[in-house]
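Dear support,

I submitted the protein below through the web form. The confirmation email said the job was done, but the results page showed an empty box. After a refresh the structure appeared. I'm attaching both so you can tell me whether what I see now is the final result or a partial one.
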Amino acid sequence: MKTIYFLALVFLISSCDTSIDVEEQFDYTIEQQMGCFCPQGGVWLKLYVVNDTISKAIRLSDNTILSYDEFKFHKSIKGLFNQIAVTDTSKFDLVVTMDPTNLYPSYLYYNPKPVVNGDTVIIIEDAQQSFTTRKLIKR
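What the results page shows now:
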């Protein structure tokens, strides 16, 4: 009878494992929170990055492995630098804070500036986006 309980316990533990495979290769991990009006806004994720591409993401609040569609708008460190490079500061407000130790963007915020057309000022609401990034761990 003890053997059955032991086997059931082993099965239960192994079927609930959501951790990353220790054999999986990745270049680095970061934790990131995206600020936006979107489904994953405000949620901290742990991102696993291979060749500057996010290969896996885990929601930190419950250790759930997410599908690509749930993390596809998050950015690797290279992706953060690319976003800075392509943001036209004549059209967008841009705020960047660099991590003092590892020199990557720990905070990135951009928001469309109001557009003036004659007497009309057009303000695009809910278009701002931010990325707060922390805990870079290189492999």
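Response: this is the final, complete result; the empty box was a page-load delay. Helices lie at 2-15, 68-71, 77-86.
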